[in-house]
Amino acid sequence: MSEPKTPTPTPAGDTYKGWVFKWTNYIKGYQRRWFVLSNGLLSYYRTQAEMGHTCRGTINLATATITVDDACNFVISNGGAQTYHLKASCEVERQRWITALELAKAKAAHMQAESDDSGDDFSLSSPPVAPGQGGSHNSEVQSALRTLGSKVEDLSTCNDLISKHGSALQRSLSELDSLRLTGEAGDKIRQVTERATLFRITSNAMINACRDFLTLAQAHSKRWQKALQAERDQRVRLEETLEQLAKQHNHLERAFRGAAQANASADNKSAAGPGKGEASDEDDENEFFDAMEEAPEFITVPADPQFHKRSSSNVSGFNSEICPDDQSLNEEPLAMNQESPSQELVPLKKRRARIPDKPNYSLNLWSIMKNCIGKELSKIPMPVNFNEPISMLQRLSEDLEYHELLDKAAKCHSSLEQMCYVAAFSVSSYSTTVHRTGKPFNPLLGETYELDRRRESGYRSLCEQVSHHPPAAAHHVISDRGWTLRQEITVASKFRGKYLSIMPLGTIHAIFEKGNNHYTWKKVTTTVHNIIVGKLWIDQSGEIDVVNHTTGDRCHLKFAPYSYFSRDVARKVTGVVMDKDGKAHYVLSGTWDEKMEFSRVMQSSRGGENGTEGKQKTVYQTLKAREVWRRNPLPDGAETMYYFTSLALTLNEPEEGVAPTDSRRRPDQRLMEDGRWEEANAEKQRLEEKQRIARREREREAASQRTSSQSEEAVDEDPLTDPSLKSAPHDSYQALWFDRCEDPITGEQIHIYKGGYWETKDRGSWEGCPDIF
């Protein structure tokens, strides 16, 4: 093995640690692992950096057996459930580990026997305390008491040994004295006897002192435990008092802000004064929380769900969540009609919670797929059997499933905190794909889809299919809660026989009114496996760079592809939030199908094992991880409803007043949802043929316009050499609600919403919409 020289394991008190080779499997063989022996437990990690967060395995030596195979190999097993085949770099190192393991095993077995017999000499029976510093302090106290008990036990053992060996020595000397030896030998024996007597006197004095200390320690042990328990109870009471104070402070703050808003609405002229004072109070709070952030040691107060966000943000640094407006994320069943001058309450529309079950139709897959290998997916006439009853425009709108992440981001005072929410939002859009193996309907050119959730969630969304070859959809979302989302996505897909690769092209933009922060990111590649044989499953892989173009902050997210040989959790996502100078402030980790967590970085350093390219990995020392996003559970019976989420079930629900080009009015999609798949296939072919006829008509019009423009040119103008004529478009189609322009941030040619849709809907005049259905 070309491994670097293994450092000699070093003991640290009762802890023994070092590098040992561990057998993993027949493919990788022995792999270098970092082993730590402490408190009778042998644990191992891939690197030293993992000691703070990820333990790969632990075995209790109290019930384990240790056997030696050869000069360097040895085996540790606890009876079959766990077996470690280990190999040291040399025989000396192996002997050091064997000695340390045997001593730790003897001590662990002795402590276990003592615990089974008495159990109350040095054990603590205390009620559970609050997580955080209290739990770590409790473990430190227990460790100190166990150490003290071990040392006292050693003294007792030494006491017994000295008494035993001293008595044996005295008997031997008495036997020698009785032999009546003369001359020089007798003098030597008498001298040895005198020294032995002096040693016995000294040893008896030490034994008596040790016995007195042991008796005193055992007598005061329970008293110390009672005092420690009293201190712990007092700390719990103080934390409960602090919790009550946090509640009272929260209620007072809400009452003050409610009164300030009432005064501002009553007297507009005096609104500037209270507004200034309120901002001053918030600044004072921010300074307090920022000071708390810098301290690695902190206290976590357990909180009720109503104010959990506030108390936890003080610790984690997410001070943006202190605003009482967070409760607006969970609206009441009644919402305010913003268009009514009387501000009367209007009941929200009840959305549907079920769609017809998916029928079980058989299909000869190979007969359809064998002629599709290597072709562009959007150009293949696919039956609805492979589809799900929503269009790509509706699928794009489904990214707003977790819009509350952007609502929270809009309230952040720090751009780095805001970046964490935006990054979590970029990951959350993939959570709905884990079971969704159906293909959305390709939108027809000019097809639109609106998602008006202004009264429920504060946002309005509009999508339009702005191009057909290549297929491109423009999306624009405006929220009353201070953010705007826009994107233009072009999907490139290739069928490779065994799997289908879907590569979304285009940039997503998120703009926040507060701070004018402008974020951009792209989507990763989606792969659908087992197209021909086996059960379909979906994987996401690639990297995302979320960039704040206003401040220069950046978050690099990595979606790990699935690997059979990987020990990491499946669908893993990791990321680091850095400022413009490259300094890390937050670490994100989780999975794209379940949840994401963040940790505040307190210190970073280069360390651990070298990476695959010879680079050292960065070790981040972070505070305790907190959850920033978790996937919503699927509704009951989702497996028979295409695994739709609660939002997806409502996307194709018929609504009055939508545009004639809205996806809800698409007949083949509606027939498929109703379970009439044969009729849906026929209707789908009719719509596609109608679209082809419309495209050919536009091409003829464009050709006639080019011909008329050429006739107006000078006679000596050569149309074959005129670059303007060569570059003239064959299709003169222009989107109805979006304008094509150059993105000032990315420089890409994109479509941006030009306005007018919602005003047209209010008037109910859709005369300008094309007839596509």
From TrEMBL:
CDD domains: PH_OSBP_ORP4
SUPFAM superfamilies the record matches: Oxysterol-binding protein-like (SSF144000), PH domain-like (SSF50729)
Annotated localization: Membrane
Ranges in coiled-coil conformation: 221-255
Keywords, in A-Z order: Coiled coil, Lipid transport, Lipid-binding, Membrane, Phosphoprotein, Transport
Membrane topology: Peripheral membrane protein
SMART domains: PH
Bias type Basic and acidic residues, positions: 662-703
Any GO molecular function: sterol binding
Pfam families tied to this protein: Oxysterol_BP (PF01237), PH (PF00169)
GO biological process, one term: lipid transport
Alphabetized InterPro entries for the sequence: OSBP_sf, Oxysterol-bd, Oxysterol-bd_CS, PH-like_dom_sf, PH_domain
GO CC annotation, single: plasma membrane
Stretch list, region Disordered: 115-144, 260-285, 654-729
Family recorded in the similarity comment: Belongs to the OSBP family.
Protein name in the entry: Oxysterol-binding protein
Source species of the chain: Parambassis ranga (Indian glassy fish)
